[in-house]
Write a structure and sequence with these properties.
This protein is an all-alpha fold. 73% of the residues lie in helices and 0% in strands. It is built from 10 helices and no strands. The longest helix is centred in the middle third of the chain and has 15 residues. The chain is elongated. The N and C termini lie far apart (41 Å).
Length: 174
């Protein structure tokens, strides 16, 4: 991992991938840190699609579907390419057998809220629900913080109503 990190920091992504392949054929299997380092390297170089394809290729080769890697990948795609592309990548990952969890979705909710784009937040929540998840108190608190920060007070009542409908009890953070 230190070698791969060094290669990536020095702009030698090809060498990093060659070393990764060597790890795969030896007793030293790549892990979540290895994959995260290489994916970040692709993104730092502006090669977003290659970073996404790299992770999908690793999944097809039988690498464990590390959720933390997928969440980092989605964060990078969202920051650099936007939500629509991130949701497309999310669907691709599901197809590859790397299913998101609520933390993954809450990460996307957090980023859309930080941008103040509540329409995008709504898309993420809709996607979350369509994949069989239910917003939790963290999801609601994140949205409430964004709504209050943007002065959309009418939306606060709507969120509290949804929380009540789904038996989510407000916390001290709320």
């Amino acid at each position: 991992n230190m070698l791969i990190s060094g290669f990536c920091k020095n702009g030698k992504l090809t060498d990093a991938i060659i070393h990764l392949e060597g790890m795969s054929s030896s007793c030293c299997s790549p892990d979540v840190i290895t994959f995260n380092t290489i994916i970040r390297c692709f993104f730092n170089r502006g090669e977003f699609d290659k970073g996404v394809e790299f992770w999908k290729r690793q999944l097809r080769k039988g690498s464990p579907p590390y959720l933390v890697t997928s969440t980092i990948l989605l964060e990078l795609v969202f920051r650099r390419c936007g939500l629509v592309r991130a949701l497309g990548v999310l669907d691709d990952l599901v197809t590859e057998g790397c299913n998101p969890d609520l933390v993954t979705y809450n990460t996307l909710v957090n980023y859309t809220c930080k941008e103040g784009n509540l329409a995008q937040t709504s898309l993420v929540v809709g996607n979350l629900i369509s994949h069989g998840f239910e917003p939790n108190i963290i999801t609601y608190n994140t949205i409430l913080h964004a709504i209050c920060g943007n002065g959309h007070w009418k939306g606060v009542d709507e969120i509290f109503h949804r929380m009540k409908e789904t038996s989510k009890t407000p916390t001290i953070v709320t």
